[in-house]
Amino acid sequence: xxxxxxxxxxxxxLILFSVLVxxxxxxxxxxxxSKSDHKANIQSQQCAPENITCAKTVTSxxxxxxxxWRLWSxxxxxxxxISADNGQHFGAPVKINIKxxxxxxxxENRPKLDFDDQGNVYISWAKPLKKKYxxxxxxxxxxxxxxxxxxxxxxxxxxxxxGHSFNEMLVTDNGQVVLIWLDGRERKNNxxxxxxxxxxxxxxxxxxxxxxxxxxxxxxxxxxxxxAMAHNVGKNxxxxxxxxxxxxxxxxxxxxxxxxxxxxxxxxxxxxxxxxQWHLNGCPHQGPGLSINxxxxxxxxWFNNGEKGKGVFYAYSDNxxxxxxxxxxIGDIQQQASYANVISNGNIVDxxxxxxxxxxxxxxxxxxxxxxxxxxxxxxxxxxxxDPDRPFLIKHEGQNFVSxxxxxxxxxxxxx
Amino acid sequence: xxxLIKSKVxxxxxxxxxxxLFTLNTAAQSAVFSTEVFNNxxxxxxxxxxxxxxxxxxxxxxxxxxxxxxxxxQQNPSLPVILINTDGDDExxxxxxxxxxxxxxxxxxxFYFIDGEAARSRYLIDPNWYGELPRSYFYNANxxxxxxxxxxxxxxxxxxxx
Lengths: 416, 162
Hints:
The structure holds two protein chains of two kinds. Chain A is built from three helices and 27 strands. Chain A is mainly beta. Chain A has a domain at 1-36. In chain A, the strands form seven sheets. A four-stranded antiparallel sheet of chain A has the order 1-2-3-4, with no helix packed on it. In chain A, strands 5-6-7-8 form a four-stranded antiparallel sheet, with no helix packed on it. The longest helix of chain A is centred in the N-terminal third of the chain and has 17 residues, at 2-18. The radius of gyration of chain A is 22 Å and the shape is globular. Chain A starts with a helix and ends with a strand. Chain B is an alpha/beta fold. Chain B has a single domain (2-161), classed as 3-Layer(aba) Sandwich (Glutaredoxin). Helices cover 46% and strands 16% of the residues of chain B. In chain B, strand 2, helix 3 (60-75) and strand 3 (81-85) form a beta-alpha-beta unit. In chain B, helix 1 (2-23) packs parallel to helix 2 (35-45). Mean pLDDT of chain B is 87; it is low at 1-13 and 15-27. Chains A and B meet through helix 1 and helix 2 of A and helix 1, helix 3 and helix 5 of B.
């Protein structure tokens, strides 16, 4: 009945208005400006859940054999497909055979995918609950080449109907599955608690699967930006992991923090990673990017719109974020430079980001050949007429790639 | 395919005409945002102070601001506020409508960004706005505006609007 009322509501203005203005002409006037070139958008009317084109987000990762996987969600299911040629061609979509449930997959929230060196597959996502802004961190894995996946389990152990989202996950070189997320449990008992908390859960595959303890890493994070996480892969780094996130400093200053933590429970100190003084009692909806190379140099990118810094910035640190290089400005803020990501590969550092030129979204790339000291000219490597997903950088051996999904147009893997 | 194109054109016709009706101040449901309708709204409010509030279903502080607006709106049905939802995602229509209904704001003039064109629409409103929310544009009687990012205090809302 509700649908009928809505349909009638839409039809009544049409009938009323059609006597006043030639509707077709006006409609074309509007569509000319906004959608005439976007033929592919028509596909949105025939979207099957496994159709990656219709997904809002795509996550990509290389497995230990060098095959490229991509993961997306549709109609409460997760799907993946695999490429043996670095993303030029992908096999047919495969549905992950677990019970269907809601999956957060838009803008800053998306499922995550990683592998251990045995080729076991690990997947995590956030599952929205009934109450607005509440969700759980979910996890599944396969040890038999994806013939079976374990029943999904909840990673956060508080049992509280609260926010648990913006999950990140990676598997370290020693097979430790590390999850982090933003957690709203502190607000449940303390209405004056500001922001969210950063939590981690970690574990290794056993015959009995996974049992996750939860450990708080930080208090007072921003509540609506993705986290960046990277594995400390250098020698003598003890398989540590580093998280970078948007934090709430002082009176609603939304700058970034960075923290390197271990696999046990040793307290670690977070450092402030940006000093742009963005005063905002609201949602930036833009998290940072982080990559760590074999010399333990931290490469960081972020967006701010603060009193002291506006736009996308890059900086590096050689002591876990305690001291940083002078931030380098990336892209053109006049063209809405945003959603930057970074990856290091030896002395090469690649940064990608999106700009909007008033007509189209453009994917930009800029490369440093000297470990982040200087960057070459930026170049446009792709475009989209419609709202695109965030770009993400991945690597296999000596080659970096950007994974960029354009809803209604398709997923791209571009070698850099 | 032909039918799909027809259907798309008809759909766009419907949303556009509905949005035009807002400029005639007759409708009471959300309509698609365009420069034309926004300019018409600006003309309509010329000579008085008003507020254009941008919000998203993914923004908890926006919901707090909707609650503040709702409180004022219940006491003052001619409150000079328009709401613009910035999600640009047809899959969120129901969620958007549920929130508007929850805060009893259905009758307030409101628009939403067309699916897939959130950044384009944002750019049309203000090329120096980077998507942070909530975003408020306080217009004075001369049509000049002051922008503010983040949750706005109830005091400031009252001072500007009442």
